[in-house]
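Handout, page 2. Input:
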Amino acid sequence: MKRIYQDYHMHSSISPDGNSSMEDMCRSAIDKGFKEIAITDHYEFYIDGVASYRFNEAYLDEYFIAINKCKDKFSDRIIIKKAIELGQQHLQHEKANRILESYKFDFVLASVHKIRNLDLSQINYNHSIIDIYSKRYLEEVYELADNEDFDCLAHLDLIKRYASKNNIKVNLAKYKDELSQIFKRLIDKNKGIEINTSGLRQGLNEPMPSLEILKLYRAAGGEIITLGSDSHNIQDIGRDFEKAYDIIKAAGFDSIYTFDNRESKRIQL
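Output:
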């Protein structure tokens, strides 16, 4: 059986939406045979003075205390990378940069969960608006890719997850011009994209982004990819990675990447 032993997207209970402690996440990854994980707890940004009760310095300090304990406890069994998933960092550019200067991460995922402050999960999707919101979403992704400091772009076609709950199918691969511009910025800045397997277990029957988008990225010259389960509990760590292996190969890649101190390393498959 073909396997990949690095999971580069997971959330502990320090994240507001996480369900398992960081120690339990590490133990589960070890039990499943993983050699390396990146714990990418969320940090969300907003505009217009919206303040989060959770995302602050105390939250980041809590994360670093927990992950340093885990690194000490499990250092002989698994490599644990300090990582973060920054949501909409382009909405608060200076604050995001201050965080990355103050806290030293091995790996930074960038995400768009919102269009401005409107969460993708809160949109009432229908056929008359889906094209508008798909383009607005890609505009946000481009702004993020164009201006911000990160290593890989997470779940590029995330909007399809939420639209599908309204029985609306979204295929962002048809927006080739918009994707081409995003890929150009990523490649020019030596950044990559993530293959997120959560779509395979959440009713989409494909990863995020889709195989079609992965092929477009590869054709554009994209090389850097990471693989993540987007697990919020111990059960989903590494879920569907065997399927992901075949998808990666089908898209034209022969390797994935890991990160240390924000420097990428190629892992041959």
